[in-house]
Every structure is written in C-alpha cells, then in structure tokens.
Design goal:
The complex is a heterodimer of chains A (about 80) and B (about 160). Chain A has about 80 residues and is α+β, with helices and mostly antiparallel strands. Chain A has helices spanning about 10-15, 30-40, 45; strands spanning about 1-5, 20-25, 50-55, 60, 70-75. Chain A has a 5-stranded mixed β-sheet with strand order 2-1-5-3-4. The radius of gyration of chain A is 12 Å and the shape is globular. In chain B, strands 3, 4, 6, 8 and 9 form a 5-stranded antiparallel β-sheet that branches. In chain B, strands 1-5-7-2 form a 4-stranded mixed β-sheet. The radius of gyration of chain B is 16 Å and the shape is elongated. The N and C termini of chain B lie far apart (about 45 Å). The model of chain B is unreliable at about 145-150 (pLDDT under 50). The chains are: A alpha+beta (about 80), B alpha+beta (about 160). At the A-B interface, helix 1 of A face strand 4, helix 2, helix 3 and strand 8 of B.
C-alpha cells in the first residue's frame, strides 16, 4: 500500500525533504513505517525518539495501523506561541 | 460560540483578533500578545522562524479553544498565529478572550497558551549569531526559565 509521508521542522531537515510517497506492506503500523524511514534517511534516527505522529490531521499512537493512501506527518516537539 | 483561528505570514492586526470576541454581555476582554524576545538565557536572538502544519494547527487550536470556552464559560476565544521570519519585538501570536467576568478570561488565556505550546503543530527556530536551533526539542526546551545552562547543540548555518 502507498503511504504519503510529510516531514516538518527538524524532521524535514533530518530527512532532507518535505515529503515522499512510499510503498509498505499492508497492515503496517506507524512504528514499522518509521523504521523504514530511518533506513532511507539515517539522519532521522536522532530526532525519532521525540517525534509524534499524525494520520491526516489527528495525533495517533505509534501502534496505529496504517491504511492505503494515508497521509502521515512526522511532528517534532512543537514550539508555538 | 465565537471562535476564530488563523495562521498568517503577514503581521498580525490585534484589533481584528479582539473584534472577533467582543459582545455586549462581556465585562472582560483579555488580549494577549506573544512577542519575539531578544534573548533566550544568555543567547542573543537575531530573529525567529515559525513553521506550521497549517490544517492540523488550525484544527488543534479550534479544538483547544472550544474546550476553553466550555470549561471557563467564555463568550468567545480567538487566536491568530504568525509564521515565517519574525524580527525582535514583532507579535508571533495574539489571543483574545471574552467573558462576563475577568477571572474566567484571565485564566483561560493562560491555559490556552500552555495547551497551544503542547499540542498545536507550530515550530519555532531560534536564530542567533553563529547558528540556529529548533525550540521545544529536549536539548532546547521551551519557556522563559528553561534555557539550558550548557551551550545548546547548534546546527551550522547553511
């Protein structure tokens, strides 16, 4: 299945891109996706422990199961205000 | 319920934010300006850069705002957050709250800001002489009193 990944702030800099689409096995969760992303972009390993994730526009835990066509955002610790 | 949330790359007009919450039953209107400060701890800041995951940031601001309205019995809450490059002294965020009595409005503004800093996907990069850091990371926590005692981990400027 295809997953659209969106990188923000420090994650964008670590991955060297704003987003990408990749194919992963059906039934994968967010943690499995993250492991794949770190293989592709080793720089992500440094920021990975502090990341949160969104599917669409809602926070989701790392064991959330992904569906074909999902948009997954990698969200470093926020700093608004 | 009146809630108005915006993200903009233009300077914020705080009067527009205030006007979103005014009403005849309000004895209190609180307008908070979050401005760009010239230093973090001992580090002199040259400018800030804000970035947002806009649709989710607006959804989260709205969700937290609605919660504050219900919890504190507010008439309305509005917030505009700026993104892009900001200079020292500029407003990064303006929050306006109205309620019949002042205690609710004052408390709600403070709580809204705390929640925004936890859950709204907006990021701040602090630029200073010789480098820049993302604020909110474990090495560079948020908050006035949280500047690290040791020098921060600095990314070289591109």
């Amino acid at each position: 299945m295809n997953i659209h990944v969106h990188y923000f702030a420090g994650a964008r800099e670590a991955a060297g891109r704003e987003g990408e689409t990749l194919e992963i096995d059906a039934g994968c969760d967010v943690a499995a996706l993250l492991a794949r992303l770190i293989e592709r972009h080793p720089g992500l390993a440094r920021v990975a422990p502090s990341l949160r994730f969104a599917i669409g526009e809602a926070f989701q835990p790392v064991d959330a199961t992904l569906a074909d066509g999902d948009d997954v955002a990698l969200l470093p610790p926020v700093g608004g205000g | 319920m009146g809630a108005a949330f915006h993200i903009t790359s233009a300077p914020i007009d705080s009067e527009t934010v205030r006007m979103a919450v005014v009403g005849p039953d309000n004895g209190a209107i609180v307008v908070f300006h979050g401005a760009v400060r010239n230093r973090t701890g001992a580090r002199e800041v040259t400018h800030l850069e804000y970035e947002a995951f806009e649709p989710m940031a607006l959804a989260e601001m709205s969700r937290i705002g609605e919660e504050m309205v219900g919890k504190h019995g507010l008439s309305a809450l509005a917030c505009t957050h700026r993104i892009g490059r900001l200079q020292i002294g500029e407003d990064a965020m303006v929050v306006a709250v109205s309620s019949p009595h002042r205690d609710a409005a004052l408390g709600a503004v403070a709580e809204f800001i705390v929640r925004l800093k936890q859950d709204v996907p907006i990021w701040k990069k602090e630029h200073f002489e010789g480098g820049a850091v993302w604020i909110g990371t474990p090495e560079n926590p948020q908050g006035e009193g949280n500047a690290p005692a040791s020098p921060p981990e600095v990314e070289p400027q591109p």
